[in-house]
Amino acid sequence: MDVEKAVRDLERTLGPSKVDTSAATRDGCARDDSPFAGKIPAAVVFAKDSADVAATLAVCQSHGVPVTPRAAGTGRTGGAVPVEGGIVLATSTMNRVIEIDRKDLVAVVQPGVLLGEFQELVEKEGLFYPPDPSSLKTCMIGGNVAENAGGPRAFKYGVTREYVLGLEVALMGGRVLRTGKRTVKGVTGYDVTSLLVGSEGTLGVFTEITLKLVHAPTEVATVLALYPDVRAAAAAVERVVENGIVPRCLEMMDEDTLEAVRKHGVSVDARAKAMLLVEVDGRHAPLDAILEALGNVLTDGAIDVVAAQDKAQQARLWEARRALSIATRKLAKYKLSEDVVVPRSKIVTLLDRSAAICDREKVRHLAYGHAGDGNLHVNFLWNDESEKPQVERAIEGLMRATVELGGTLSGEHGIGLSKRAYLPIEQGSDLIGLQEDLKRVFDPGGLLNPGKIFPTGHGAC
Amino acid sequence: MDVEKAVRDLERTLGPSKVDTSAATRDGCARDDSPFAGKIPAAVVFAKDSADVAATLAVCQSHGVPVTPRAAGTGRTGGAVPVEGGIVLATSTMNRVIEIDRKDLVAVVQPGVLLGEFQELVEKEGLFYPPDPSSLKTCMIGGNVAENAGGPRAFKYGVTREYVLGLEVALMGGRVLRTGKRTVKGVTGYDVTSLLVGSEGTLGVFTEITLKLVHAPTEVATVLALYPDVRAAAAAVERVVENGIVPRCLEMMDEDTLEAVRKHGVSVDARAKAMLLVEVDGRHAPLDAILEALGNVLTDGAIDVVAAQDKAQQARLWEARRALSIATRKLAKYKLSEDVVVPRSKIVTLLDRSAAICDREKVRHLAYGHAGDGNLHVNFLWNDESEKPQVERAIEGLMRATVELGGTLSGEHGIGLSKRAYLPIEQGSDLIGLQEDLKRVFDPGGLLNPGKIFPTGHGAC
Questions:
Q1: Interchain CB distance below 8 Å, A188 and B161
Q2: pTM of the shown model
Q3: Which of these, A346, A371, A396, B229, could form a disulfide with A252 (CB 3.0-4.6 Å)?
Q4: Which of A198, A284, A370 lies nearest to residue B191, judging by beta carbons?
Q5: Complex confidence, ipTM
Q6: Inter-chain contact A104–B178, Cβ cutoff 8 Å?
Q7: In Å, what is the CA distance from A198 to each residue of A143, A159, B162?
Q8: pLDDT tens-digit profile of B206-253?
């Protein structure tokens, strides 16, 4: 590996304007929105098109230099952190919406398109692109596809994978492939597209993404329900699911989360120690029947249930949920948000187990999340580096409890660096070995986004 | 390769009762519901559990003997045809529904469970498993997963892939892995489950399947619309999609299909030269609004539009669609049904192109299918072997037209033997090569279901 030679080669091949070796840029691209710091890369390539991406992957391959792909760098598990330095390959400069086809309900975008801006464009056409991770104003679609991003609306609409029809992808060494289709159905060959979605930048770099769109709902209603404890709220979640009510969002917040939100200045009934925020929508279907059914199942055991159908009222109901990320971040110097998933009937058990684990390890925690999917953000909070070992034991305890309850380590953040050590808790060595073999088909030298997903990956940070 | 030794080894390992070497069974398992005949296998193993499957794959690997997995053998593209003889590995004897979990909306089944029987069990619980290939009474879930089966209800509910959460799979050589999850969300590692779904029995043999269920709709309504020509019907399909109406089924039949159905004794208005059969459903949502919207967009250019909300009337409206398979089969000695998919706005263009191609090649054809998805069953009919070359030219013409229009070769039948020669029309050699590399990760010796999907596969039949 000769990074300096690779940088000179990249400057010659791509032109120096696309290869940024300034300290500020390199520093900025050594981290993402996780607590992990990588090794500062030798250069950051800002690709303008798929040829630039392919050329970068060819040059790095020939010099044996590691490449870490990066869209917006808003990931939570270190997926965009350059563990081994090398080159960061940024696709944030490939930000064109190539096509929005109203008739075929298809969009074609480059990976650097901001999710929020794309959604606005799509909604102007009366269409809808549902995935809505909380970073939607700052995250980019390339990263969403790499991590298979979710969000509150996944309960009804599914995650990013459900919307990716086809990909143009550049592989290590510089080959560019097209996978998938432009049609909603298709079973021609293996589903390479689904293999690439959620592969966390370890198999290839997306240069063009074909997405499925749906028509925008014409009716939306929001319901807020307050409970005396999280058990009552979780029971209400189970009743929603059991009655076959499919809200687009079904969000839960526990006592400590509500307390954080109150401290942040959002007014929430003092008696409430758990909250559900539920949103239903429809098209060519009035919401009266579903709101009535929802009212019936939410009311039991609740302190209060409030519904809103106009936008101003809806925004008020969303206030606590929206404040949540900032409000909880203020609680301690360090915060790590996990995103485990359990079968929906196991939510209360997991919350009980988390509380017991955190009591034992003396770690402060709180929980909220997409309860309808069983996807909970258990947040660990600490103020001093010296507490790190007990936090790590608590996280491992949470992972073990999750898997024992039939769950999975990650619902939407990915494994990245933060959970790779826990992968063997969920997956057998045969399955991990098979995935490593699949990785080798795409990247025999292990140069593309090294150190991610697999516990035996290259150097930690 | 020593098939005789492998058979003796299998008899010893599994016990002779599971290894059937009778001529009748071996003959029966040399074909499926496609026009292809394979080489008669030396034996058919009827596996009772995953250990039997693993042992068979271990024995065959050690003797270098090809294995062709088989569930019900109802596939349309030769996926279960043993091109090289060897051993047929039947999972039809693994037919237990292990679990239906009403709370978590999950079912666990063995691969030999009949789809229709499973759907009945699920519906008794008030739940719903949507995929509905026309063979649903005779096909098995293992085959559905291998081929990623669809059906009319895919327009609203998606295909089999959308319902497979996790798999237990035995690989060539005898390793048994668990992939995926039991939760609706999960991004832990690569999506190996999606790679296996639709892999046509070439990567592994499913021994247990974890499926997502949904709640059964409480309201269903059926609408039949008749048109003076297929162009008017296709325009109505486009209006349905453009207006964001999402029926669960949106089926189209062309003039020749209606003629076949009439000959079969089903009464259809003589003026009608195209038919749409549309079904909408809902839960906690009355259908009045969607039926009104549907009525508005179907009526334009229609001869007649009829709606039915009770079961008897609905069955009458479905009569033509249900008769279709038998009715069209009577039209000629040979029939081959393709299942190409085009973007929905290209349906009329594809029908025009098919007609021109068949005129030129003097091949009789008709078309029907899942118009909402752009998934058309173009059927080629012929009576004499001597017509085969012109039929093949017509099929190739259809495939080229489909790809030129932005479509894909197969929407639900798979590639198997019947379409493998056409794969390069749609996919580049790099993508085909990558898939062959993925195949080698699972089956380095190329012994599992050889000759399928890839144009350069082992011996044709």
A1: no
A2: 0.96
A3: A371
A4: A198
A5: 0.95
A6: no
A7: 9, 11, 16
A8: 999 999 999 999 999 999 999 999 999 999 999 999 999 999 999 999
